[in-house]
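debug: dumping io for the single-chain case to check the tokenizer round-trip. Nothing else runs in this session.
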Amino acid sequence: MAVAVWLATFLIIFACGYPVAFGMFISAVLYLLIAGVDLSTVMNTMVIQYENQFILMAVPLFIFTAKVMNAGKLTDRLFDFAKILVGPLRGGLGHVNIVSSIIFAGMSGSEIADVAGLGTVEIKAMKDAGYDGPFACAVTCASATIGPIIPPSIPMIIYSMLSGASVGYLFLGGVIPGFILALVLMILVYILAGIRNYPTGRWLPGKEFVKILLRSFFILMAPVILLGGIYGGIFTPTEAAGVVGVYVLILSSFVYRTLGLKALYKVFIETLVSSGFVSFIVACAFLFGYVVAREEIPALITQTFIGLGLMKSQMTVLLSLNVLFLILGCFIDVSSILLIIVPLVLPLVTEAGIDLVHFGVVTVFNLMIALDTPPFGPTAFITSGISGTPLSQVMREMLIFIAFELLALAIITYFPDTVLWIPRLAGYQG
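debug: decoded output
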């Protein structure tokens, strides 16, 4: 009875369009009431368990970093630097878009922040240069997928909390997959640029090149400080988030002087709102997870996979879960999949002998593609709103980019060394 009410309540609330956090909280509380469990469990599970997850401190700090970079116009300097590197290639600004996302990824860890921040600069520049609006939007959506794959990564931090996998090794595991995705997308841009005769940039004289390089130098040092500090043993990933946040704040406020007090106040408010939402949904996920564990649902899922013959090999399990995540990602919010579905399948993954770092990177990669997939991919809605391009045209153009993203996903799924090679160099035993 309690299980039926719990599940039905969650599905009804979700179907009505209310935030998933409310669905998890209300359904779990009803379950506890019907099952006769002391309601003090709510507080113990949500608050105490959250307090024990020190790694989650990094999330609001990376959110703050991304918002400071966008508000302080640091993204403009990143874009200018990327332009001198790859702008002269065929389809120049498409490649600039991708390289900008790689650099931004080294500081923000958020795909949505990339789309909303860099996207404004990138799409305008591409349209002004003669690129089609749908193409500009599609490149921006696809390249932003790189953000949470190349370290740091907010989804990887949350996955680390759920799985117990080292966040440091997860970060390292995302490096090669991020560059694989970038390479695949650049090949596609090159092909489409040739077919559609998109414009090509020009090589800058040495003097101008140096000028732009110097102009961008300090912001380019941010990912160096962050990643060098983490892997040099100077500070933890959580401490690194605070260090890079302070660094970009100093750059914006005192070095470049592009961030005033009014804008900074807005950044703090937006960070508090975003962090509060993330914290609440994570805390609700802990309570929801209590019910899941009490009813032994992960064990049931594992037995179902065994019964269907899907446990014959690790590749079969990975293929099945990839397909599941891709389908769910078309209709369900990514945070819901990460916080509800992933904990359900982790025992299955462990039973199959799949490395948790490899699975974590594959999962995050998959879920970032979900942000692009129609009908509810939020990146399409954001870029369409930014550019004024009809949503239907953006989604149609994105289909070819999604196909190439899936190609990159297949590579890192079936060639685990693409994920695990760098972590193993750093001492990982998996």
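debug: round-trip ok. Residues 38-425 form one domain.
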